[in-house]
Amino acid sequence: MKLSGKHIVIGITGGIAAYKSANLVRLFVKSGAEVQVIMTPHAKEFITPVTLSTLSGKPVISEFFTANTGEWHSHVDLGLWADAFIVAPATASTIAKMATGVADNMLVTSYLSTRAKVFVAPAMDMDMMMHPSTVRNIETLRSDGCTIIEPAEGELASHLIGKGRMEEPDAIFRRVATFLIENEKYNLNPEINGCDGKAAAQLKNKRVLITAGPTRERLDPVRFISNYSTGKMGVAIADEAARRGADVTLVLGPCNASPTESGVMVVNVESARDMLDVCERYFPSTDIAIMCAAVADYTVAHPSEVKIKRENNEIPSFEFVKNPDIAAILGKRKRDNQYMVGFALETDHENVNAIEKLNRKNLNMIVMNSLRDEGAGFGTDTNKVTIHTSDGRSKEFGLKDKKAVASDIWDSILENTNG
Ligand code: CTP
After folding, report:
1. What are the tens digits of pLDDT across the range 314-328?
2. Sign of CA dihedral 343, 348, 350, 355
3. What are phi and psi for residue 25, nearest 5 degrees?
4. Which of 3, 9, 145, 182 would bridge with 31, disulfide CB 3.0–4.6 Å?
């Protein structure tokens, strides 16, 4: 991605992920952009200004004045110079200052002065990330027009496992670069904070939760039962949501499909139970949930702890128990300001069954596809759907590739949620 002539401010705060920002600076410089690094005083304890000024080719700014010359650094000039303003890593403390306008360092002061699009990549311990004050502050930044680049799940500096690892530099780079390129394509005024381009504006500030792919239910450590879902439809829906500007969390069962848009955060799961756990965590802060996964309806009551051997005399038999119905559970908890979409893959009485599921699971919309239609359903690159909504309307679509179907689904959701 070429970004010649673009001006990027990279704000670095005092977190362990600060070392990754060196790579972020390098990626922007390599793309032809000019980079100005601003560090908070604490950031210098994690990475040296010398490293960053060498990589960016510009002195790093950290203080309001240069100590020996008394030269004043204008935060206003810097804010106006920027085409994109990135804070990565963004600690809980800097996020709180940005949310409340506490301008006690060069980074937050420049943030308050900028008219550029702002990207914030939080990095912190999982409990700090989930603390109501952090959640509230991030929410405020979102409604102020910042794009939050959600942290990933994994091992954290505390050695705890959870959500809080700063997104990888190449994903942050792609996200910002795509914004700048799209912005130019749509010829919008890049100086307005929060202006994401025509398509990207449609779902701006919306949090979308999508389930996709199959689930696996274990029989023993090497065997499972599952289904033919390839995850392609759900991944296409996730990519389309990200292209339209949403913050997307994709809860993905085991499959080969993966999103191409950097705005999609993937949480990989195996069983229906895992999928439910993750969905329950994200659903309360979700605006639109799309249940596209082919969730196994049954799981094994007592999977074997050890591999079941062929030499055993008895043919094994398993007791099956019902899996939780994720869509129905979330449907029960759905608030009036949340919108839920389900899928129904049917083989007979298609529309009747789909509408029955729409009502039973308290959904707002259901997307029906029939295995009787050639080119629809599992594994294909195409699909043919009929969309039913809870107000009794239905719309049938022709056979299309899954990307186009994803676009039809989002158009229908937007039509229904915008009144
Ligand atoms: N679903 C879910 N959790 C389950 C089963 C289904 O979240 N345990 C969701 C699917 O993701 C889909 C919708 O519910 O959005 C309908 O799924 P489907 O398998 O067609 O419906 P079931 O309720 O399982 O009914 P049946 O298998 O009897 O047709």
Report:
1. 888 999 999 999 999
2. negative
3. -60, -45
4. 3
152's enclosing H/E stretch is strand 152-155
Ligand 1 test: best mutation among 291, 348, 364, most atoms within 8 Å of CB? Answer: 291
Name the nearest CA neighbour of 166 among 130, 121, 196: 121
Calpha distance 78→113 (Å, rounded): 8
- Is residue 22 predicted with pLDDT exceeding 60? yes
Cα separations in angstroms, 93 against 10, 46, 64, 98, 147: 17, 16, 19, 9, 18
Reported pTM: 0.60
Asked if residues 216 and 254 have their Cβ atoms less than 8 Å apart, the reply is yes
Distance of CA 406 from the midpoint of ligand 1 (Å): 19
Cα-to-centroid distance, 155 and ligand 1 (Å): 33
pLDDT tens-digit profile of 154-188? Answer: 777 777 777 889 999 999 998 898 888 866 644 33
Q: Is the peptide bond before 89 cis (omega within 30 degrees of 0)?
A: yes
Q: Which helix (H) or strand (E) holds 134?
A: helix 132-143
pLDDT of residue 315: 87
Phi first, then psi: give them for residue 384, nearest 5 degrees.
-135, 120
Taking 70 as the threshold, does the pLDDT of residue 47 lie above it?
yes
Nearest to 170 by CA among 262, 240, 244, 85: 262
Q: Which ligand 1 atom is at minimum distance from the Cα of 294?
A: 11
Identify the band that residue 70 occupies on the pLDDT scale cut at 50, 70 and 90.
Answer: low
> Backbone dihedral region of 404: left (phi > 0), alpha (psi from -120 to 50 degrees) or beta?
alpha
Q: At what angle do helices 402-417 and 232-243 cross, to 10 degrees?
A: 50
Determine whether the shortest distance from the Cβ of 323 to ligand 1 is under 6 A: yes
Question: What's the rounded Cα separation, in Å, for the pair 177 and 173?
Answer: 6
Catalytic residue among 193, 227, 353, 362: 227
According to DSSP, the residues that pair with 345 across neighbouring strands are: 369
